[in-house]
């Protein structure tokens, strides 16, 4: 009978050990599930961040294009001011020269 009692005691200890192992497995399972939820949340945040960065990149490129056009406009205005100061009119760059109106060729009708 002692052998039978030993086997029953070992079965009881095995059952207790199995219960402890099941509790540990449950705790590990909950930890893994929480980690999985955190990963999903991080992925969602990363996705939204990527969209926002794309939006800001487009805004910056638009701002750069606007600045390029403003700078080109300012350069054009400066060139016009310089040409007016130098005396540029039409096709003749040296507009200080007065054309000869007293030509000897007479126009006849």
Q: Which features characterize this protein?
A:
109 residues, mainly alpha, 1 helix
The tally of helices reads 1
Distance between the termini: 152 Å
Please provide the ordered H/E string of secondary-structure elements: H
Work out the helicity level: over 70%
Topology, number of strands: 0
Secondary-structure-based class equals: mainly alpha
Beta-strand percentage? under 5%
Overall morphology: rod-shaped
Unreliable spans? none
Largest sheet, if any?
A: none
Please compute the radius of gyration using only Cα atoms. Answer: 45 Å
The chain-level mean pLDDT equals: 85
Give a brief rundown of this model:
The protein has one helix at 2-86. The protein is mostly helical and 109 residues long.
Structure, explained:
The protein is 78% helix and 0% strand. It is mostly helical and 109 residues long. The longest helix has 85 residues, at 2-86. The termini are far apart.
Fold topology:
Elements: H1 2-86
């Amino acid at each position: 009978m002692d052998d039978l009692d030993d086997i029953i005691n070992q079965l009881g200890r095995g059952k207790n050990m199995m219960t402890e192992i099941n509790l540990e497995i449950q705790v590990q399972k909950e930890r893994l599930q929480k980690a999985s939820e955190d990963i999903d949340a991080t992925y969602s945040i990363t996705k939204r961040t990527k969209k926002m960065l794309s939006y800001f990149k487009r805004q910056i490129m638009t701002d750069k294009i606007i600045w390029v056009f403003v700078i080109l406009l300012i350069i054009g205005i400066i060139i016009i001011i310089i040409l007016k100061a130098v005396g540029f009119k039409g096709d003749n760059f040296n507009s200080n020269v007065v054309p000869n109106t007293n030509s000897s060729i007479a126009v006849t009708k």
